[in-house]
Amino acid sequence: MGIPNRVGQGGTGPGAISPDGSPIELYERAEARGEDQLINAVIPPRSSILELGCGTGRITRPLVALGHRVLAVDESPDMISRITETETLCSTIEDLRLDRRFDLVLMISYLINVPDNEARRGLLDTCARHVNPDGTVLLQQHDRRSFAQNAVLERENHRLVISDVQQLSGDRQSATMTHTVGEDTWSQYILVQNLTEQQLTAELRAAGLELVDYLTPDQTWIRARPRAAAT
Ligand SMILES: C[S@@+](CC[C@H](N)C(=O)[O-])C[C@H]1O[C@@H](n2cnc3c(N)ncnc32)[C@H](O)[C@@H]1O
User: How do strand 87-90 and strand 151-155 relate by DSSP bridges?
Assistant: First the structure.
């Protein structure tokens, strides 16, 4: 029996689907869109990186090509089996307990917006447990404006339809994201918990981390560090 779907997440379409609803074949075809350069600009050369929720290695591969040493972690064996360029580990993020720490702990793809406070705490605890005392934690959070209304986005041969958008109580949003690439179509159902800066700061603090700044004007890329290093 596979891993059950995560709360409020799910997906349909050709090929295997990870427990959070992400289609493996869709991510396999996707490429980095500048994320690797954004990350590379704020870490030392040849950094050790723990990448949490790496998927098929869309960001892993360019980071390895830039000379960094990446341990790529994902709970989906189907996702992680596509990565051959570096060390990988199949694990849920919350359960990860390694006896090593890293210059950078990277957790993107809006995982921090999981609509479950306990799960979010588990994710942030894993980040804090594995970052060097003088290291960096980079997170990417959901932009609430992207679920303001139904929308259609087209780029190259990729069509994304955002439908069924709902503004829910407790500052949650949900939507269906339907991707069409060539002949193939995948739908992913998404429920996210938005975080105010005050909530984000408090949740980082509870995990022993501190907000440093945002890497992008839309404030979706968050830089944090261990609190002991903040003074
Ligand atoms: C949307 S995909 C993005 C993959 C990759 N970060 C990228 O940008 O291409 C999210 C990935 O996170 C993984 N994931 C989500 N929640 C997880 C958890 N709690 N523990 C381990 N992996 C998780 C999923 O299996 C999936 O591969």
Answer: unpaired
